[in-house]
Amino acid sequence: MKTKFKETTRLALVALVVMLSVTLTQAQPGGQKGGQQGPPPLPTDEQIEKMVTDLSAELDLSETQEKQVSKLYFAHFEEVEAVTGNSNSRPDREVMDQMKKDFETDVKSVLTKDQQKQYESYMKKQDSQKRGQGKPRQ
User: DSSP code of 35?
Assistant: First the structure.
């Protein structure tokens, strides 16, 4: 009887160790891959069109403004694609930040003063959603 108890105890202990190992491995962020690798994927043409449509609805853009903004969005993402290429390495952060700043300046140049204020607010909201519940970038 003692032998059976020892064997059962040993088996339960081994099962517990295995379960803890699996749980700890699964709890690590990014699993074995270490999180996101490389730059985020570029939006498709359909996604860019949706971005422009959403922005147009938010800012009440005229038809002319919407066409101009659409051209700017497509040109911007073509430029980003040229800089990032097909590699998995991230481009220089300063270069990407400057591209974004230039892009936003170009978009604002198409907008009225009121729309510019709305655009800034809209972009802040979009950035906070991308970062997840408004956590600041580090």
Answer: S
